[in-house]
Amino acid sequence: MKKWLLNNKLTVIGAIAGAIGGYLYYYFVGCASGTCGITSSPINSTLYFAILGGLIINLIKPTDNSQKENSNM
Fold first, then answer.
1. pLDDT at 52
2. Domain housing 17
3. What's the confidence (pLDDT) of residue 63?
4. pLDDT reported for residue 5
């Protein structure tokens, strides 16, 4: 588990930042009528933004090309 966290630390940081942002969005903006699928519940908003944060960071983080080059030899 520790090795996985070290290898994916940027994705985990992005997910945590997204979760915080999602909760803050629910708290300050939210949905007054309660009919919004994502922002009507703090759990939905937090999970949705955590997934988005992890995915966005995962898309922009640099990749390690040395493993790909070694596997072709």
1. 96
2. 8-62
3. 72
4. 84
Q: How far apart are CA 30 and CA 41, in angstroms?
A: 8
Can you count the helices (H) and strands (E) in the chain? Answer: 4, 0
Instruction: Please indicate, yes or no, whether the overall pTM of this predicted structure exceeds 0.90.
Output: no
23: left (phi over 0), alpha (psi -120 to 50) or beta: alpha
Task: Show the tokens assigned to 72.
Answer: 């072709």
Tally of structural domains, the chain: 1
> Any idea what DSSP says for residue 31?
-
Whether residue 1 is contained in a domain is answered as no
Q: How far is CA 52 from CA 32, 64, 70, 72, in A?
A: 23, 22, 32, 33
Residue ranges of the chain with per-residue pLDDT less than 50: none
* Cβ–Cβ < 8 Å for 22, 49: yes
